[in-house]
Amino acid sequence: MSVCQIAPENEVTLKNLLTAYKSELNAHTMHTAYAEKADSDGLHGAASLLRATARSEQIQASNHARLIRQLGGELEAQIQPVEVKTTLENLTEALVKGVYEIDSMYPRFLAENMSTDNSAAQTLTWALEAERTNARLISEEIGEMGAVGADSLASTPVDFFVRPVCGYVSKTPEPERCWSCNRLCSTFETIR
After folding, report:
1. Which pLDDT score, from 0 to 100, does residue 175 have?
2. The pLDDT of residue 131 is above 80
3. Quick one: CA torsion of 62, 64, 70, 76, rounded to 10 degrees?
4. Less crowded by CB within 10 Å, the N or C end of the chain?
């Protein structure tokens, strides 16, 4: 096995991308498990949302992986066991982890990346924007479940639209271009 040479100016960016990659892979696993629980509880709308955010997390991990390989890094991640609780508790846990990425992880990674000249800023920015949207949608779902209970719209399957380039999630098909990655939006994946 040959060892890839990593340019010194990319070492911090690569370390941050590996951390983000691990975080997004674990979030994908967590959201997938939470979606299964929501479905088993009859909360199909919440399950639809969690499947959409799981897909978003998977896209973010793939974007990070691509760049890690381009910078000469090797992919490594340990998937943590997921503790599945009630759907409301699971949504809350997903929100807490997403807020950490929004408030701390991605802003720090972007700030540290500013001193280098590589394309990491794009994938990190897309991930930050996708996380913001995911957190908003999860927060809205928590509010609906808390206000109305299990008989809310959470029990009805819902279509969500996920942009396969950047991981942006929407409740409706977006206008001509994705506001996050500026690509044509005709390629949104429909997740139910």
Report:
1. 64
2. yes
3. -80
4. N
Query: Scanning the structure block, which residue is given the tokens 């066991």?
Result: 81
Say if residues 25 and 79 touch (Cβ distance below 8 Å): yes
DSSP 154: G
Q: Which domains does the chain have, with CATH numbers?
A: 8-191 (1.20.1260.10)
Q: Which residues of 55-91 are buried (b: 16+ CB within 10 A; e: fewer)?
A: bbbbbbbbbbbebbeebebeeeeeeeebebeebbebb
CA 162, 168, 170, 174 dihedral sign is negative
pLDDT band at 3 (very low <50, low <70, confident <90, very high): very low
Predicted pLDDT at 106: 97
Q: Are 125 and 110 in contact (CB under 8 A)?
A: yes
